[in-house]
Amino acid sequence: MSLFYQTVLLFSLNLIDAFLTVYWVRNGYATEGNYLMATLLEMGNLPFILVKVAIGVVAAYSFWNWKHFKLARFGLSISLVLYIGVMAIHFLTGLVVTGMVSGAFIQELNSWTRSVLIFSHQIAAHTIS
Questions:
Q1: SS3 letters for 82-127?
Q2: Which of 8, 37, 56, 87 could disulfide-link 14, Cβ–Cβ 3.0 to 4.6 Å?
Q3: Contact partners, residue 91, CB within 8 Å, separation at least 6
Q4: What is the reported pTM?
């Protein structure tokens, strides 16, 4: 995928994240985990969305403007991976909200994920030492 489309994708995911977050929070299905963004959301939907979009614009512009730097291209790739993870969380939230997946399954998935992360951290620490 070209760098231009990656940048557009990043901005699009940011925008989708903003609207889904407002929907989940306003309907009582989730809370905003970022303290600064939660404060903006308490002020209203518009301040939250404006700041979220502004952050997306600055990020997309920065990645595009400095695309000739390897660090910018790497940062864009990492940002896309993280945002795809955020979209997975939104997807799972939607599955729980609609009753297609139980909350107990999500808790079990969370426990399994933590176990895998702890195990991989232990392997990495053992490999380094």
A1: HHHHHHHHHHHHHHHHCCCCCHHHHHHHHHHHHHHHHHHHHHHHHH
A2: 56
A3: none
A4: 0.78
3-class SS at 25? helix
CA distance 38 to 14: 16
Q: How far is CA 127 from the centre of its chain?
A: 30
Contact by Cβ (8 Å): 72, 78: no
Q: How would you write the pLDDT of the chain (129 residues) with one tens digit per residue? A: 788 899 999 999 999 999 999 999 999 988 898 899 999 999 999 999 999 999 999 999 999 999 999 999 999 999 999 999 899 989 988 988 888 888 788 788 878 877 877 777 777 666 655
Q: Could you tell me the CA-to-CA distances from 57 to 9, 54, 124 in Å, in that order?
A: 12, 5, 36
* Single-letter residue type at 24: W
